[in-house]
Amino acid sequence: MLKMAVLLSGSGRTLDNFHERIGAGTLNAEIQVVISNVGDALGLEKARRYGYPAFHAVGNKTVNEILADYTVDLIVLAGYLKLYVPPEELKQRVLNIHPALIPSFCGPGFYGHYVHEAVKKRGCQVSGCTVHFANEVYDEGPIVVQQCVTLDDADSPDDIAAKVFAVECVAFPEAINLVDEKGVDYFWNRK
Quick one: 113 and 78 in the same domain? Predict the structure, then answer.
């Protein structure tokens, strides 16, 4: 069972999903701590309500100082809108979710609604999400899971976002379970 730190910047919808799946026994993980770079993030309020230690921290140094007080196997970026640099001992243990099928619509500036607007503008017939390990370059680390959704011509960026979030709720827990089963090194060494 993986001991996780959850980093978030917003409403905590992904935290809700993790909490529900852990309770249902379908996510083989424990949440040790929740940290947000946004002081009034709804996700922090939810974390406290769920009983998780929850902190506001700005900057990698401050986040890592908080993490040092917890036993953590995996750091999950659940809508964390900053480039995170972990301490050396957790360097290859940061898992992120991106709201597109990497390598499309990724990198600096491609996050949240910007991704779905770009997908719509390009006229894509499919989109989806990618769960991947994070490194010092946006959206570059090894891919763990991808899920695809079919788009309709009439879909707005909001419609695309809703379809993608629905598969994110399945893909992120699936990826965490795969990391628990196969180990972190499997994904970094896979060719």
Answer: no
Which amino acids are annotated catalytic?
A: 98
∠ Cα 7 4 102 (to 5°)? 60
d(CA 3, CA 12): 18
Q: Classify 109 in phi/psi space as left (phi over 0), alpha (psi -120 to 50) or beta.
A: left
Tokens for 144? 């763990």
**Token pair in block for residue 151:** 């788009």
Cα–Cα distance, 139 to 129 (Å, whole number) = 12
- Reported as a single tens digit per residue, the pLDDT across 155-178 is 999 999 999 999 999 999 999 999
C-beta of residue 74 within 8 angstroms of C-beta of residue 27:
no
109 in the same domain as 80: no
pLDDT digits (tens, 9 = 90+) for 43-65: 999 999 999 999 999 999 999 99
Nearby residues of 120 by Cβ (< 8 Å), 6 or more positions away: 155, 156, 157, 160
37 touches 9 (CB < 8 A): yes
d(CA 161, CA 116): 6
Q: How many residues would you count in the chain?
A: 191
- Alpha carbon distance 81, 117 (integer Å): 17
Quote the domain boundaries for residue 25. Answer: 1-91
**Phi and psi at residue 76, to the nearest 5°:** -110, 130
Domain count for the chain, please give it: 2
